[in-house]
Design goal:
About 30% of the residues lie in helices and about 20% in strands. By secondary structure, the protein is α+β, with helices and mostly antiparallel strands. A hairpin with a 4-residue loop joins β10 (about 225-230) and β11.
């Protein structure tokens, strides 16, 4: 009707807005872009692929390959939404073996960044160049380039500032980039990969066997930790490696599960692997594994998540059972799982005497000088026997050299009023080589020496730059490649905590000095362990901003360097530890909020005897 205004409230979104919305599902951070471009290069049949990033991918991400390249029509069409060479009908979804197939990645990336594509087929003399700015595609022009494709993505989210503001620190974004790089490189050991950040090579992975790829990524130490898994059934074919249980870590991050070459996350499959290692892992530990499942594509659906990291399986129960059995069999085959010998019980093994030998009557020997209430009169043999059994010796907790009459260390200015005392001296001793025990006017006080020392070190590392103690011999740092980027991006942080550390290239570092405080009370920690524990603490907390990451790194270092339970302390060392603890702002808690001090007042003690 003429002159009437339409009352319709539903309108069709402009194409560039629809693409930006789609980008929110596919392109979440720089790592998402790298993943899509790397997978495109693999689908193009490349045998050499390089990934170059600047500013953790914020400024630039470039993936170059020697694959098939594209002609003019394909080069233009690849930036169109839902333009794909992988499927032509819904039935094709049942037989997919390629990485990408929906045709959303490049259009989504191009809608939130500035993109330049250079591509050339081996049969063409000249390459083509296409520029895209926020979704606006230029006409292709001729240029020179090697056969293959080179996709450069600049200024990610430049036109969506709210999205750019949600990106984390460079260290966090680099960790995500490295994770995605590994997820692409692991299932394709036949392809050579290179990754650079700011022009520095982080990984240079030559083509080779799977075991070589694992070792090149995670470091030479892993070569001796790998247990092969190989199982073939009508439902699934399994291959890959699991790590020996004694090398399991308390953090996740080194668990890789691939289905038909695609990285996925599947809680049921992970649980099957964990159950297969029951009894071999300590609580809270996670084993290393790189496992590949080959399943009939018609029996799997990976199109249930925008990033395709989840999947549904028709025979999920069967695969879970086969996976758990295969891991158990692999561990048993290589004698990793504990074995029982039912042929002989060693407790009843008797030595057969030689013919004619005289058998003497067994004698009972009694030490008539032994007094359980003294230490000095015990023969040396008894002490050695007790030590060899590893059993606790309660009388050691009251050894004279562990008891010291000291001045009251709970000064009113540094301790709660209830803990202050006026007595000039207090007894103090070490209980079970793990707790320092003393008394106050309020009652009995026990201090956890490990947690107390961790609090002291944490406050030291976060308050000011730590002093470095030079090593007699420099130590090479076998940093897992998955974490090499974190170390490289945060060398100044490690140095501020007392490490004299330099980058040698790739994932190789040298440590010439460690924090001086880590050597307190006779400690002698390994540089490798100190840095491993720092990285583990960072990994455990996932995405962190720079300040939080420094705090967690300091906590990991403090925990690693702190004296452990079982460490004997002299009276002076106990006094020094307590004095330093109560100089901290929060002496009652360690860096994880756990109590460092336990008090037992008169009523609590009396109640034990009621």
């Amino acid at each position: 009707m003429d002159g009437q205004v339409s009352s319709a409230e539903i309108t069709r979104l402009p194409e560039h807005v629809a693409n930006q919305i789609a980008a929110g599902e596919v392109v979440q951070r720089p790592a998402s872009v790298a993943k899509e471009l790397l997978e495109n290069a693999i689908d193009a049949g490349a045998t050499e692929i390089s990934l170059d990033v600047v500013d953790a991918g914020r400024t630039r991400i470039c993936v170059a390959d020697n694959g098939r390249g594209m002609g003019p029509e394909d080069a233009e069409l690849c930036f169109e939404r839902h333009a794909t060479s992988k499927i032509s009908s819904a039935d094709d979804l049942l037989s997919l073996v390629t990485k990408g197939f929906r045709g959303e990645a490049l259009s989504s990336i191009a809608s939130v960044a500035q993109v330049t594509l250079k591509t050339r087929r081996p049969s063409d003399e000249l390459a083509l160049e296409i520029n895209v700015d926020g979704g606006d595609v230029s006409s292709p022009r001729a240029c020179t380039a090697e056969p293959g494709s080179r996709m450069e993505v600049r200024n990610l989210f430049y036109n969506v500032p709210a999205r750019r503001n949600f990106l984390k620190s460079d260290a966090v974004e680099m960790r995500h980039l490295i994770d995605e790089f590994h997820r692409v490189a692991l299932p394709h050991p036949e392809i050579a990969f290179v990754m650079r950040h700011g022009g520095k090579a982080l990984f240079n992975l030559p083509a080779g066997a799977l075991r070589q790829r694992v070792v090149h990524i995670f470091g030479p130490r892993y070569d001796q930790r790998l247990v092969p898994i190989d199982e073939s059934t009508d439902v699934v074919r399994l291959s890959g490696f699991v790590g020996k249980p004694e090398h399991a870590k308390r953090t996740r991050g080194e668990q890789f599960l691939f289905v038909n070459g695609r990285f996925i996350k599947h809680p049921a499959f992970h649980s099957a692997i964990m159950r297969a290692m029951d009894g071999l892992l300590l609580p809270g530990q996670f084993p290393f594994y790189v496992l590949f499942l080959e399943v009939n594509p018609a029996r799997i659906d990976v199109n249930i998540h925008p990033t395709k990291v989840e999947a549904n399986f028709t025979e999920q129960r069967e695969i879970v059972a086969i996976l758990g059995a295969a891991v158990k069999r692999g561990l048993g085959r290589f004698q990793v799982a504990p074995a029982l010998d039912f042929d002989q019980e060693t407790a009843f093994t008797l030595t057969v005497p030689a013919p004619g030998a005289i058998i003497s009557e067994p004698q009972i020997k009694v030490d008539t000088t032994f007094n359980p209430f003294t230490v000095e009169r015990r023969p040396a043999g008894h002490a050695a026997n007790a030590a060899s059994t590893g059993s606790p010796r309660s009388h050691d907790a009251l050894r004279p050299d562990r008891i010291a009459a000291t001045q009251n260390f709970f000064e009113p200015s540094s301790a709660p009023a209830s803990m202050a005392g006026s007595a000039p001296a207090r007894p103090m001793f070490q209980l079970f080589d793990g707790w320092i025990v003393t008394t106050t006017k309020a009652g009995l006080v026990m201090i956890d020496q490990h947690r107390a020392h961790a609090r002291i070190l944490f406050d030291t590392y976060t308050a000011s730059a730590a002093v470095s103690q030079q090593l007699l011999f420099p130590a090479s740092l076998e940093c897992p490649s998955a974490q090499a980027g974190i170390v490289l991006e945060n060398l100044d942080m490690f140095r501020s905590y007392g490490f004299d550390i330099d980058h040698l290239g790739g994932a190789d570092f040298v440590v010439r000095g460690i924090p001086q405080d880590a050597l307190a009370y006779g400690n002698s920690p390994e540089p490798q362990q100190l840095i491993d524990d720092m990285l583990a603490e960072i990994d455990e907390f996932g995405s962190l901003d720079e300040e939080a990451m420094r705090s967690r790194a300091a906590a990991g270092l403090a925990k690693s360097a702190a004296i452990k339970k079982g460490k004997s302390l002299t009276a002076l060392e106990m006094r020094d530890l307590i004095d330093r603890l109560f100089a901290c702002e929060e002496p009652g808690r360690d860096p994880w909020g756990r109590p460092t001090i336990a008090t037992f007042d008169r009523d609590t003690i009396a109640a034990r005897f009621s």
